[in-house]
What does this fold into?
Amino acid sequence: MSAPDPQVPPQVVVRNLGKSYGDTLVLERVNLEIAPNSFCTIVGASGCGKSTFLRMLLSQEAPTRGSILVDGEPLPREPTPDRGIVFQRYSVFSHLTVEDNLLLAAEFEASPAIGRLFGAARRTAMQEIEETLEKIGLAPARKRYPSQLSGGMQQRLAIAQALLKKPKILLLDEPFGALDPGIRADMHELLDQLWKELGMTVFMVTHDINEAFKLGTRMLVFDKTRHDPHAPDRYGATITYDLPLNAGAKGRAPPVSELFANPKQPLHKGTRP
Amino acid sequence: MRIINRRPSRFSGFFLAAIPFIAVVVVYMIASRQRLAENPADKLLPSFQSMGSAFWRMAFEPDRRSGDYLLWLDTLDSLWRLGIGMAIATALALVIGLLIGFIPHVRSALAPFVATFSLIPPITILPILFIVFGLGEAAKVALIVAGTAPVMIRSTAQAVMTIPREMIIKAETLGASVWQMLTRLVLPQTLPGLINSIRLALVPAWIFLISAEAIASTTGLGYRIFLVRRYLAMDVILPYVIWITLLAFILDRLLLVISRRAFPWFHLNGESL
It folds into this structure.
C-alpha cells in the first residue's frame, strides 16, 4: 500500500487542490502525500489535467484552490531552481550549442551582470560539464545546435540541463512522447540511473502506461469521477488510482482497462478494488 | 512529370532569372531608338549612351558650380541619413520592443500607444517635423525614425512573445534573473527577427528619405532626381533610380549575410529569401 512510512515526513503534500479556467473545472479535490525520492508517474486520458497538475507543481500556474507544500513550505509563486523541468519540446535553448546549453546555469550563477563567462572561468566551468557530456553521450556533438540533434539527443540534453542545479524535484511533462520506442528504452535507462544516483523526487506525466509501470515507484491515475452530460466542464478530474509500484506490487496492479474504467466513486489513497 | 516537380538546373535557373531583365532592356532600347529616330532631341527615353555619359558626368566630373562629385556626395549624404535613421529606429525597437514583449506591465503601458502611433501615416507628420526640427538633417532622420520605428517595435515585441514559454521557464529554473534572461535568451532569440524587420523597414525608409530630400534639401539622391526633373533630364533620373535600387539591394543582401553569419542556428531549417 502507498501509506507513507511514518518515520519519513512526506516531501510533497497536496491539499484539496483545484484548478479551473473560467467555468471549466479541470482539477478538483486532489489530495496527495509524496515521500522523498519517489518516482511518481502520472497517467490519464488527454485533457484530464495531469499536465495542469505538473504545471502547478512547477508554479507555472497557480492553483485556484487548495495548496501544495514542499518540505512543509508553500511553493514559491514562480519557477525556481529547486524544481527542474523537462518539456516534450522546446526544453533546450535553440540559439546555444550543446555545451553552451549546459554552461548556461553556471554562467547565470557566476555572472549576474551579463550571464556570460570568459577565459579561465569559462574553461573551469567547461571542465565541470565534461562528465555530464560524456554521460549523456553528447561529447562528440558538443558544438552542434539543438536542431542538428535527433529527438533523443535533444531530450538527453534537456534532462542533463534540468539536473544542473541539482533540483530536489524533477518534473517531466511527456518527455519521451515524441521519441521512437527503441530510443525511449535507452532514455528510460538513463533516467532511472540518474534518479537512483541523485536522490530526488520525480514527477513524470506520460501517455504510455507501460512507461508509467516500468519507471515509477508510484503511479497516479487522473480521471473524472463525476460526469454531467449536459455540462461536461462542471466537474474536474481527480486522482482515481494511487498505486504503489514496488517490485511486489507491480505484479498485483489491476489491468489497464480497469484503471480507466471511470470508477463511480472517487478512490482515496490506498484503497483500490 | 508534373511541372511542380521539375526544378531548373543552376544554369537554367540563372538564365530564367535573366529573361525579364533582358526583356525590359530590349523593349526600352527599341522604344528609345524609335523615338530618337523621329526626334533626336527627345528627352523622354534617352539612349543608353547618353545615360552612360550622364552617369559618368555625375560620378567622375566635378560639378561646374560647386566642384563636387555629385553622385558620391548625394550617395554619401543619403546613406548617412538612412543609416542614422535606421540606427535610431533599431535601438528604439530593441529597447522598447524587448520590454513590451517580455514584461507584461510595460506591455500594458506602451503597446496600445505604439500601435496607435504606428497608424499615423508618417508623411503627414513631415510638415510638423520641418517646423519642429527645421529644414536640416534632423527632420529627415526624424521622418525615417517616425516611419519605421513603430512597426519595428511591434514586430520585435511580437518576436519576443513567440519565444516558446518553455524556454523562459527553463531559464527560470536554471536560476536566471530577468536581466540575464533578457541578455542570454530573449535578445539572442530576437536578433535574427530584428534583422529581418530592418530589411523590411528599409523599404519604407527609402521612401521617407527620398520624399524628405525631394521637399527640402540641398543634397541627396532624392534631391537630385527631383531637381533635374525640372529639365526632364531622364538621362540622369534613370541611372539614379537604378543606382538607388542597387544600393537598396546591396544593403538587403548585406543584412542577410550578417544574419547567416551571426545566427547560424536560425538559418538551419530551410532557405530564407
User: Anything to note?
Assistant: Chain B has a mean pLDDT of 93. Chain B touches chain A through 25 residues (CB under 8 Å). The two ends of chain B are 27 Å apart (CA to CA).
